[in-house]
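Summarise this fold before class:
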Amino acid sequence: MPEVSAAVRNMARRPSLAASVLLTLGVGIGASTTIFGFVDGILLRPLGLPSSDRLVSIQELHGKTPVGRVTYATLHDLGSHRFQHLSAVAGMRLWNFALEADGQPEQVTGAMVSGDFFAAAASAPEAGAFFGPGDASEPVVVLGHEIWARRFEASQDVVGRTIHLGDRLYRIVGVARAEVQKLAAADLWIPLQFEAPLGTNRRSHLLDVVGRRRPQSSLSQARDELAAFARSLPGDDSPDLSLVAHDLQETLVAPVRPMLAVLVAAVAMLLALVTLNLTNLLLARAMSREREMAIRRALGASEGDVSVAFLVEGFLLGACGTALGIVVATWGISGVKGLLPATFPRLAEVGLSPLTVAIGVAGGLGASAISALYPALRRLGTGSIDLVQRDLSRFPARHRGREMVAAAQIMLAMVLLAGAALCLRSFLKLEQVDPGFRRRGVVGIDLPLGDRHGDDPARQAPLLAAMLESIRTVPGVTSAGLVNGLPLTGGPSTGVGIDARPGIDVNAGIRIADAGYFEALGIPLRDGRTFGSSDGPSAPRVVMVSEAFARAAWPGKAALGQRVTMKDWGDPLGGVVVGVVGDVRPANLAAPPEPTVYWHFLQFPSSFNTAVVRTDLPLPALVRAVQAEVWKIDPGQPLARVRTLEAVLADSIAKERLVTILFAAFGIAAILLAAIGLYGVLANLVGERTREIAIRGALGASPLAAMRLVLFRAGRLTLAGVAAGCAAALAAGQGMAAVLYEVQPRDPAMLTAAAVGVGAVAALASYWPARRAASVDPMTVLREE
């Protein structure tokens, strides 16, 4: 087509304009496609299981307080009941296992699941068959697809073979497809055992429970049926128990939905700003070619021919810029994923899907079409003879459109910069929160004994004690301790009874530790003592409590010597308080300190154990030394995850850091685009009014007057944009409340800071055109005229 050839020639003659359009569109489409890639992979895309929209998460409530997980006893009743609106209900619990097959040991994550788990997943086996409700007492195992391919070379003959999980022998009955891991992220699955005392206790909330709705049943019908079922359960232990069902995908993504919503709004504003910037660039291009177009029109070219030339050139630039944006998005998605922890919901499913690419292409072509359409429509009604014969600078209305676009850019930049300021202040406040421990120089090393030494934690506790003593002898290790879960990683919680206040329970986090844990993390002792050598397995049970627990359990009274009882984990377990320690943040820095009860690991052993080591050794050297010491006690014992406490803390605020980084990037890009737009308007103004400035100078006007003329125009545009931006930022601020910590969405200080930042950048963008106006030599210009 001749229009395409002409457009390519025009772009080649003005490479700076083409490069500006490509870079602007590339950044805008790259950013928006990156964010939509996360929205698609996390919020929009189905879970990947058959009819995944019918999967529900079933949770317990006590009164109006959600507990989340479900007890063994409640799951047993759920599995025994035939529901009208649920075709399958299954519970699961992750566990660490020492897998040994063909003489090769490996630490794996297994899931203990009830018999209807695979029915809830509705997935067919890759090989063999799945176990069912009747196989609960059988030592059978279903392998995950990944471990089947890696350890057994995807052999169909694996069915019927046996493997060791700890000290037990299991028979492989089947292999699950990869999609099943989206329901339970495990390497393998074994039957869940309903054994006393946990199997009959309604206060031990340890199981994640999922269900599958029948094809014609709605979520509200399933909820009503579960609520009625909960009312029929025995109420001795939990008289206010209720059950509720939520869409499973919504449950998984609920923690990150507010963050993604804010980022979508931000990137939409950035894309609007990009569109305005493109409009300004193409409008300037059209204005510089008005004489050329008018001559073509006067020589017989139709108005349609002239307009099509602008549209074709805009489309070609838009197509190339969009392609660049898609390339940028591939890097953007990879980079953003690198900023997030592996525990981020559905992170592995985020990528450049066909829908994401289609949205990016539509956004890029749409933005370029809008930007090219305005200059084309603006030509309609303009007389070609007038344009040829008259001085173009005599049409003040010709600049009005560009000035409005520049003001709109400043407004959007103001909103994004205000959002960036709010996020930055919120993140800095969050970083200053005291986590309750000293994180520098502390390393957590998981010691997953699994079932290697039997499934009784009491048999494993002496072995762990020996490992700890050996680790403490490593040169460079100043202290070492043991705990069942690192701070800021969550953990089990339950109601703890206060013996002196019958009927009063305090919901508390449960930590199982030794004295070395408090020393290694620098958790301060506020009263009493820590665990000692006299607190052995046969000694009277003792506990330590956090300050938050002491305040809640015995307000205004001393905690030392008081007795607490935990009824939720098997038989009632009581202990006397011997020490009070400082509060530690349980799951994230934004959450208030959780009341916590600490049990001695020798008196109440755990199956999950992490060694906490304070050291000045480099991490690789420490791991090698610890592994050597552990092998002295138990040859072949693997070390699992190794994490510094600084990395744990960083992961706990990864979402907030990501929002801050992206908002800062959007804000910087927005203010630069706005500055470019303002500079373009002013530079064009000076260029077209050079003759007027020269005449004023010849009549006695000073260079300062010419500079004031430009700066006045710049100030008027900036003031209009900032004023509109302040109003828009105040209106949009409330939507950011969900991602801010101890910062008001309408913080006047942050709004002022953003306004000052926009004003400063606008002043810099205005300076060079104003200086150019002041440097006009009247005699030189008039001589040329």
